[in-house]
Amino acid sequence: MNRLLMAGKTALVSGGSNGIARAQAELFASEGAKVVIGDIDDVAGEQVAADIRKAGGSALYVHLDVSSERSWVSAVATAMDAFGGLTTLLNTAGIYRMASIDDESPEGFLRMATVNQLGVLLGMKSALPALRASGNGAILNMASAAAVRVYPEQIAYSASKAAVKLMSQTAANENGRFGVRVNSIYPGPVKTGMLKDATREVLDAALSTMPLGRMATPEDIAYGSLYLCSDLAINVTGAELAIDGGLLTR
Amino acid sequence: MTMKDKVAIVTGGGTGLGAAVCIGLAERGARVVINYSRSADEAEATAQLCRERGAEAITVAADVGDDAACRNLVQTAVEKWGRLDVLINNAGRTKFAAPNDLDALSADDFLDIYRINVVGAYQMIRASAPHFRSNGFGAVVNVSSLGGLIGIGTSMAYACSKGALNTMTLFFARSLGPEIRVNAVCPGFMATRWFSDPLGEAGLQELIEDQERLTPLRRAGTPEDIAKAIIFLADEGSEHITGITLISDAGMHLGTLPDVKRN
Ligand SMILES: NC(=O)c1ccc[n+]([C@@H]2O[C@H](COP(=O)([O-])OP(=O)(O)OC[C@H]3O[C@@H](n4cnc5c(N)ncnc54)[C@H](O)[C@@H]3O)[C@@H](O)[C@H]2O)c1
Predict the structure, then answer these.
(1) In Å, how far is A250's CA from the nearest CA of chain B?
(2) B215 in a domain, yes or no?
(3) pLDDT level of residue A152 (50, 70, 90 thresholds)
(4) pTM for the full model?
(5) Is residue B123 part of a domain?
(6) Where does the record place the Ketoreductase domain (chain B) (predicted)?
(7) What's the gap between Cα B210 and its chain centre?
(8) CB contact (8 A) between residue B251 and residue A173
(9) In sequence order, what are the residues at sequence separation of 6 or more whose Cβ sits closer than 8 angstroms to the Cβ of residue A170?
(10) Which strand (E) or helix (H) includes residue A172?
(11) A216 CA to chain B: closest CA distance, Å?
């Protein structure tokens, strides 16, 4: 009963220096996982890893730019060297920017696709051999409510997250037989730095339609992540878990 | 997370999935009200298993298709422990009917199935809602089916009833928030008496082998798998989740890919 849910597992968490991914790294570590935090924000990432170690967990930080394949290969190698294997990948790093179709540029669109979409592909591609070798692996990709509903002024973001949804299910279908489960999460608005540029009107419009009427905390997202990545969800793959205060019921 | 001293009603809690949920709740410290309609002995045996895990448990007979019985079930729970926190609408029924035999289902077959799977869930939520509100908190988990999402299952009437239950989940999530969260779990396949009663042990075994051959995870689901999904949604850690249908099906809804080699 009181066995730690992530005992014996090693998780690589992209974006773990801040926000949702940081909460995931902290919760997974407190449940017994060894965690490798990969991000481009080195100062914050080193601090997160140090805080986890201070709390008695196993964690290390590695510089990871999710848009670079070379960077992924070296992050996975670091995890393997340090902890002897990899069971769990969390593709949580992402970027957000508001822009209407009229205001979006080719460069802006491709930048969003490169981090949010290509980043997820490269993460899965780099980690899958190790996850398959573990015999019981799990991937969790961070999509968004914006992957399945229309919100104003985020054409590039929505497109990148809709790609993450289908990429997750493709990966789930291809890799189930090799012992790797792949699921995705659909947050509504979450209290992190990411929404600092979102306008008050857009946030209020979302909150007013949510049955639970409040923003999520990073911990809300981390808890669902823990369920999906632990063996509690051993029968769950290709699932789309909304943690959104009911936003998607509208 | 723990569910220490939370009070949970599980309809159809004596057998199969319902029993697995009761035991899972008991392991987390919840006080469990095990409802049954016919399986009195099994319900008592499940209560005993809960008590062996250090939890309190009672059994209450009620046909969830009968509104007065639903109200009595809820009242019994509240009188016993003074509160209600969790409702698991697990009771359900079906009639096996071949998909291409349009005469296999009568109008009464549909209505009998709806009376339990749809109206029963509605009546239980209606009876429970005032107690959840006075708590300021309540979690409902409806046990639905993948069949209700993609139109498969033991019969047309059954799949339609679960489609209705999924719709009810959305509707109630909107109308009962923010105090009450309402979610559904959609199992693909589970090896229980649901199949062995009508098909025999050999029939059940055949279904298990199909699952192990055809699902992406090459795996046949168990009641314990589904119970874990239900408890995840009932738990406080899921307090930002409402109106969802969580699929636990070894990936069946993704379809079957041809075999490829990979190392
Ligand atoms: N905050 C929300 O409301 C919300 C809603 C839906 C989905 N999401 C998704 O959740 C995920 C996490 O968002 P958050 O709210 O925690 O944001 P955040 O900005 O707090 O954290 C994102 C992290 O990703 C890192 N990152 C950005 N680009 C990177 C790159 N190229 N390589 C490596 N790391 C990089 C950042 O440094 C940061 O640490 C994102 O994928 C986001 O799209 C967030």
Answers:
(1) 8
(2) no
(3) confident
(4) 0.96
(5) yes
(6) 6-193
(7) 23
(8) yes
(9) none
(10) helix A155-175
(11) 6
Please state the domain count of chain B. Answer: 1
Q: What sections of chain B are H helices per DSSP?
A: 16-27, 40-52, 67-81, 107-114, 121-135, 147-150, 156-176, 193-214, 223-234
List the structure tokens of B164.
Answer: 């209705």
Distance A247 CA to ligand 1 centre (A): 20
- Over residues B80-95, the pLDDT tens digits come to 999 999 999 999 999 9
- A95 Cβ inside 6 Å of ligand 1: yes
| Residues A160-178: tens digit of each pLDDT | 999 999 999 999 999 999 9
3-state SS, one letter per residue, for B14-32: CCHHHHHHHHHHHHCCCEE
CA distance A72 to A1: 36
Give me the sheet containing A34-39, strands edge to edge.
A58-63, A34-39, A10-14, A88-91, A137-142, A180-187, A240-243
What's the A123 CA to ligand 1 centre distance in angstroms?
Answer: 15
Helices B121-135 and B156-176, axial angle in degrees (round to 10): 20
Q: pLDDT for B172-216, tens place per residue?
A: 999 999 999 999 999 999 988 878 888 899 999 999 999 999 999
Contact B179, A246 (CB under 8 A): no
CATH code, domain with B132: 3.40.50.720
Average model confidence (pLDDT) for chain B?
95
Give the pLDDT confidence of B232-250 residue by residue, as tens digits. Answer: 999 999 999 999 999 999 9
Tell me the residue range of the domain where B126 lies.
7-194+223-244
Q: Is residue B257 part of a domain?
A: no
Asked if the model's pLDDT at residue B143 lies above 80, the reply is yes
